[in-house]
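Dear H.,

Thanks for agreeing to be a second pair of eyes. The structure we're designing against is below in token form, covering all 154 positions.
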């Protein structure tokens, strides 16, 4: 199993291109600059992902030029989602290693993603609390502004 075989469903773009920007499978050979344009990542970041083992499976042309495929774009999108969760890069690399290791790593992958989900839920709760404080402050200043305007109009 390859890293990208786990990312066949698309749920909206974080780092990946919209489905309409893709070439059909079989004709899906993208240069690093095309992938940078499609994803918003820099070529430097894409090379770094490859160097650290997050994307070590990138095909090369006969001249050594990187050739990304749709499955690679799917993986980049997943990496972007994982980055948004706050998952450490080391954990993302570990997840990629587990996927490459095969089906016998499902339990470890499950545990890693479940722990990340719990972290995200905790952050959401924290942000909801922060939003409630902001809402109270906004209401206070709106009320104060109305009172001030009413006082000035007398």
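And this is the sequence the design step returned. I haven't edited it by hand at all.
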């Amino acid at each position: 199993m390859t890293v990208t075989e786990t990312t066949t469903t698309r749920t909206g773009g974080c780092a990946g291109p919209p489905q309409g920007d893709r070439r059909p499978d079989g004709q899906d050979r993208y240069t690093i600059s095309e992938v940078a344009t499609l994803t918003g990542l820099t070529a430097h970041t894409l090379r770094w992902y490859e160097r650290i083992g997050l994307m070590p499976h990138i095909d090369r042309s006969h001249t050594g030029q990187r050739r990304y495929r749709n499955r690679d774009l799917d993986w980049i999108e997943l990496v972007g989602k994982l980055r948004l969760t706050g998952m450490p890069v080391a954990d993302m690399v570990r997840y990629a290693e587990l996927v490459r290791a095969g089906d016998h790593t499902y339990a470890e992958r499950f545990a890693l993603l479940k722990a990340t989900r719990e972290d995200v839920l905790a952050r959401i709760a924290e942000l909801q609390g922060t939003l409630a404080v902001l809402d109270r402050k906004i209401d206070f200043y709106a009320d104060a502004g109305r009172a001030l305007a009413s006082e000035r109009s007398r």
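Two observations from my side: The CA atoms of residues 16 and 73 lie 6 Å apart. Residues 1-19 have pLDDT under 50 and may be disordered.

Warmly,
E.
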